[in-house]
Amino acid sequence: MQVTDLENQIRQILKEELSTSGKSSSDNINQPDGLGNGIFTSVDEAIAAAKQAQEAYADKPIAFRKKVIKAIKDGFGPHIQQIAEAIHDETGMGTVDAKVAKLKNALYNTPGPEVLQPEVETGDGGMVMYEYTPYGVIGAVGPSTNPAETVINNSIMMLSAGNALFFGAHPGAKDITRWTIEKLNEFVFNATGMKNLVVSLDKPSIESVQQMMQHPDIAMLSVTGGPAVVHQALTSGKKAVGAGAGNPPAMVDSTANIDLAAHDIIVSAGFDNNILCTAEKEVVVEASVKDELIEKMQHEGAFLVTDPHQVDKLAEMTIQDSGDPDRKFVGKDATYILDEAGISYTGNPTVVIFEAPKDHPLVKTEMLMPLLPIVTCPDFDSVLATAVEVEMGNHHTASIHSENIPHINKAAHRMNTSIFVANGPTFAATGVGDNGYYSGAAALTIATPTGEGTTTTKTFTRRRRFNCPEGFSLRSWEV
């Protein structure tokens, strides 16, 4: 056998193997591995690897993107309970059951490549087509309240759009975030042969996030976190999607189904110990149904604190001098907070409720813990005006419980929030439902300051226009 024949056979075998595995011989040539599975020791090295991966990925067909997303879903599916427990163990916030529901929602309900259908207009003047194409490498930042959920949700959206991403982990959830990114890269590589579509650092820090935001090879930013890091993104000079603060009021008018309202509000406010930014943070109720609502809330698992001095103690204990909630209590069980405050209770309450005026600190602070103040108003107009006031102009989330359609319509218009829910728990608007996950689109990055609202795959694409003036229409021939 000639040497050239042997070489040709070897090349053919390698070509077939690479084709079968989904690998391309040009995808990973000289690509830096860092510490492996998408983890690097420096921002520059991580972004360089992601950029090289994205340039190869951008040339792949949509079918390849679908293969990547399927690998992520199939890979993480068996690990949901393990991830939920790991998040709870590391952060100490929320509940395992709620995290299972959020992980299922992120994994199975996040929009993928299927939403990127082109738009076409044809007529005598020719054809116009709009397509959705990637930005490049996106710099993403996640919170400690939803670490793995945000990695999965952001990755599915951004990879579906053809991007790669650098993920800045919150130091308070660095271990589970790193594990999630490493496993994601492992799943994708095993299915497609591509590396480093999602990258991160072995030692995340505020400084590394700041460096990433200024890096010339980061084409876009997406920040799910506190006001400070969102502000950094918005002042970076780059295209930015920012998820801002919220203080969602739940309005209850005199026509509401009080049984349903009490159930939905307490279940939703207690979900994951109220760490969702969409969760009900205060109730604004019409006076005529206030007592009934409070009674029904107690039947749903809430504990009522009636002593004003104890309410003030809760505020003093959980709000720092800076006005921010004390992280010691963020996402903690209601029983833990009551124990720390020295307040006696019975049973195993999931939410602490109490009456308070609209200017009380626990009303006007986004607490991220199961403390739910109740503000009473004489009529619906004052309920709505108060809800607008205590929402603090965040335009994030609000809800109403009412059987009066004009009230619902007026409230939705006046609140002008990114999410508005009528007669349901606010977590329904994030895609989470009573069956563990919901058929709606998952929403973990809710971009209120920058106006995108609940983000989808389209959020992370450029909308590009293609014109063909030479007429193309099946309705006519001559132009």
Write the layout of secondary structure elements.
Blueprint: H1 3-21, E1 39-40, H2 43-57, H3 62-76, H4 80-91, H5 96-109, E2 119-123, E3 126-134, E4 137-141, H6 147-160, E5 164-168, H7 174-192, E6 198-201, H8 206-214, E7 220-224, H9 227-234, E8 239-243, E9 249-252, H10 258-270, E10 282-286, H11 287-299, E11 302-304, H12 308-318, H13 334-341, E12 351-355, H14 361-364, E13 371-377, H15 380-390, E14 397-401, H16 405-415, E15 419-422, E16 446-447, E17 453-454, E18 461-468
Parallel strand pairs: 1-6, 4-5, 4-7, 5-6, 7-8, 9-10, 9-14, 10-13, 11-12, 12-13, 14-15
Antiparallel strand pairs: 2-3, 3-18, 16-17
Helix pairs in contact: 3-6, 3-7, 4-5, 5-6, 6-7, 10-11, 15-16
Provide structural commentary.
The protein contains 16 helices and 18 strands. The chain is an alpha/beta fold and 479 residues long. The chain has a 7-stranded parallel β-sheet, with helices on both faces. Strands 1-6-5-4-7-8 form a 6-stranded parallel β-sheet, with helices on both faces. The protein is globular. Mean pLDDT is 90; it is low at 13-26.
Features:
single chain, globular, alpha/beta, 16 helices, 7-stranded parallel sheet, 479 residues, 41% helix
